[in-house]
Design brief:
By secondary structure, the chain is of the alpha/beta class. About 45% of the residues lie in helices and about 15% in strands. The chain has 15 helices and 16 strands.
């Protein structure tokens, strides 16, 4: 039996489908974000990152680095095991208090990643509700889909952001317990859920709500509580899930909800109980980022300014930018091979890193470059990016919009 052949065949299928992933070897430079060093096949080279989920550059913020270094010096590097075995390190307790306060909830529970918080949080909640029906938005993230699948209970998919379809499904479900699972900001298209309207339906038909805010926490709302905070809906959502690995510049995920729900998940979720806890230094760094962004608005305001400027310049250059009201800037290619080729040319010819987004992350025929500007992408970097993308579009024979205008 040649077991290696099975894996080689699986990889060959990915390559044939143009879905084989290649990771760029990048070395971030604290204090110089978004600049980095690309360890290319031909040696180290300076590049500019245009697709990081460290949306606000908090991964290099002096307060965040300082909290991590100070805590690691005092408490060491590891957590010592699961919270059940090693006890809970005190910075983790502080972090959960900061998160509960951020979202106006009684409690919060931290996991090792945002993926794990969905993958283990959703099924644990659903399994504790007898005869639960999960209603899931069609565009939900893979972590939510996996969590729903692992719940093993009935599920129904409502069309993306389609309130009429959701109401139809809720009404048909009758009096049985229901959980509506959706995101606030969908990261591939950059669109936003009608949170208050979904909460209206949930209240009318007796459903719980589970909201994924991973691409919005830190970025929206007066204190960075996300789209739900911005829209005045935090108190209406039963469970808010988020990440520490994007706008907060660290690592980890969490849920925030009423005390009994968080305690039940803490007590029943295998993905929480049997996993080593986040190290003290990681928790301290995340808490420092959250505390800073609760009071500092400069990062959020500058972030939105940069996103608006980038969209204007790329549109003026005739590039096919999908319209969004958020910081997500998708530039459509709509062909897998050319999407990968565009990414490669930007990196090799222009020192610009933007990863290609292909199937299964997005449907076939909707491949794109997903650009995420930060507060630290200045006007000069934006102009260089636009010129580089026009050059790549022309080399690959990709269509530009007609009658493009010079950027103001």
């Amino acid at each position: 039996m040649n077991y290696d052949a099975f894996f080689a065949d699986a990889l060959s299928r990915l390559r044939d489908e143009r879905r084989y992933r290649v990771f760029a070897d990048l070395e971030r430079i604290a204090g110089r974000f978004p600049h980095a060093i690309w360890h290319s096949p031909n040696g180290p080279r300076d590049v500019v990152i245009w697709c990081s989920n460290d949306y606000l550059g908090m991964g290099q913020h002096p307060k965040v680095i300082g909290a991590m270094v100070e805590t690691a010096t005092k408490m060491g590097t590891g957590a010592g095991g699961t919270r059940n075995i090693a006890g809970t390190n005190h910075p983790l307790i502080d972090l959960e208090r900061e998160l509960a306060d951020l979202h106006g909830k009684q409690s919060a529970l931290v996991f090792t990643s945002g993926y794990v918080s969905n993958q283990t949080g959703i099924p644990t909640i659903a399994k504790l509700i007898p005869n639960c029906l999960i209603l899931s938005d069609a565009y939900n993230h893979n972590s939510m889909i996996e969590g729903i699948r692992q719940a093993g209970c009935d599920k129904q998919i409502f069309r993306h952001n389609d309130l009429a379809h959701l109401e139809e499904l809720l009404k048909a479900a009758g009096s049985r317990p229901k959980l509506v699972a959706f995101e606030s900001l969908y990261s591939m298209d950059g669109d936003i859920a009608p949170i208050n309207a979904i909460c209206d339906l949930a209240k009318r038909y007796g459903a719980m709500t589970y909201l994924d805010e991973v691409h919005a926490v830190g970025l929206y709302g007066p204190r960075g509580g996300g789209i739900a905070e911005r829209d005045g809906a935090m108190a209406r959502v039963d469970v808010i899930e988020g990440t520490l690995g994007k706008a907060f510049g660290g690592l980890g995920g969490y849920i925030a909800a009423d005390g009994a729900l968080c305690d039940a998940v803490r007590s029943y979720a295998p993905g929480f109980i049997f996993t080593t806890a986040l190290p003290p230094a990681v928790c301290a760094a995340a808490a420092a980022a959250i505390r800073h962004l609760k009071t500092s608005t400069w990062e959020r305001e500058r972030h939105q300014d940069r996103a608006a400027r980038l969209k204007a310049v790329l549109n003026a250059a005739g590039l096919p930018v999908a319209e969004t009201s958020t910081h997500i800037v998708p530039v459509m290619v709509n062909e897998a091979e050319k999407c990968k080729a565009a990414s490669d040319l930007l990196l090799t010819d222009h020192g610009i890193y933007i990863q290609p987004i292909n199937y299964p992350t997005v449907p076939k025929g909707t491949e794109r470059l997903r650009i995420t500007p930060s507060p630290y992408h200045d006007d000069a970097l934006i102009d260089v990016l636009a010129e580089a993308m026009v050059d790549v579009w022309q080399k690959l024979g990709l269509p530009l919009k007609q009658h493009s205008l010079a950027a103001e």
